[in-house]
């Protein structure tokens, strides 16, 4: 599949609709995947049988089976499609729908914990399972950000404190996962995941977290540390700089984050025009294809 990648470095970066746009780009791939999965359900596939080159082999029978991984991806694909339709439609500000979809995401996360974690911690015997968990969690937290974005800012007529708290917690969680994939010895074989959508979602998390930091109209919960939030964004900036030679996504993400760091300095409030410009990085939509490297489809199919 060939993608024409625009290279204009001055184009505004708006990654908030990543899942929706990537679903559109890969719609034919996704539909073939879903059809193929339904055809193979009766085969009783396990870790010993190859389903796709994009599904890694688990090292032993105690790890997650290929079928469990595929089913988790299929449920997530269907849920992300529903959420994208919701946030693009007239019901985007409906709080009942917000809570229902939020609960569904949390339900999927609970399933992943039971599948891939042992007493709440990754198993050193099954690093594949931990990598799967990390990838799925980044998608879950990205969906949380998309779902709660209309409610997260105190200036919004639909403002909900719980939505801002969700945006903060999901942003921190995504930055933490990005750091684990970058640093954890257990995940060293999956370092390549940082070349693609995992890093783009981390950028989205940084934009969301910065949006909450800059929302000075209402004090952030006293249990949060604004300095620690800024430190997380700064750490992501350093990681993106180190990864910049590996992919266009990381290179452009570093440019955006470096600009963000320059504007925000050591925690000083932004000028009005600059604050609005940075806020738009979280608020607006763009064509995600501008960010994709030619080898990105492999990462998207992981």
From TrEMBL:
Gene Ontology, cellular component aspect: nucleus
Location of region: Disordered: 44-64
Key words of the record: Nucleus
Biased amino acid composition, Polar residues: 49-64
Transmembrane region(s): none
UniProt superkingdom: Eukaryota
UniProt-listed InterPro entries: Sec_Metabolite_Reg
Compartments it resides in: Nucleus
Name of the molecule in the record: Transcription factor domain-containing protein
């Amino acid at each position: 599949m060939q993608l024409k990648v625009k290279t204009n470095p001055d184009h505004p970066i708006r990654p908030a609709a990543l899942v929706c746009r990537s679903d559109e780009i890969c719609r034919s791939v996704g539909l073939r995947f879903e059809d193929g999965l339904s055809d193979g359900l009766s085969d009783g596939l396990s870790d010993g049988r190859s389903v796709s080159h994009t599904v890694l082999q688990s090292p032993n029978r105690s790890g997650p089976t290929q079928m469990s991984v595929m089913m988790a991806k299929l449920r997530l694909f269907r849920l992300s499609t529903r959420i994208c339709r919701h946030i693009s439609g007239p019901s985007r500000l409906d709080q009942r729908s917000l809570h229902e979809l939020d609960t569904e995401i949390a339900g999927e996360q609970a399933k992943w914990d039971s599948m891939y974690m042992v007493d709440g911690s990754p198993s050193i015997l099954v690093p594949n399972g931990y990598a799967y968990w990390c990838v799925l969690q980044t998608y879950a937290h990205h969906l949380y950000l998309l779902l709660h974005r209309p409610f997260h800012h105190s200036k919004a007529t639909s403002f909900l404190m719980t939505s801002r708290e969700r945006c903060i917690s999901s942003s921190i969680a995504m930055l933490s996962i990005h750091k684990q994939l970058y640093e954890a010895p257990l995940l060293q074989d999956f370092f390549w995941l940082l070349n693609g959508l995992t890093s783009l979602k981390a950028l989205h998390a940084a934009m969301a977290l910065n949006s909450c930091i800059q929302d000075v109209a209402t004090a952030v919960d006293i249990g949060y540390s604004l300095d620690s939030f800024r430190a997380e964004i700064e750490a992501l900036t350093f990681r993106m700089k180190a990864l910049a030679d590996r992919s266009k996504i990381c290179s452009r993400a570093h440019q955006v984050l470096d600009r963000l760091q320059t504007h925000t300095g050591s925690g000083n409030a932004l000028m009005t025009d600059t604050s609005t410009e940075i806020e738009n990085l979280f608020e607006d939509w763009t064509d995600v294809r501008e960010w994709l490297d030619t080898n990105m489809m492999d990462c998207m199919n992981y």
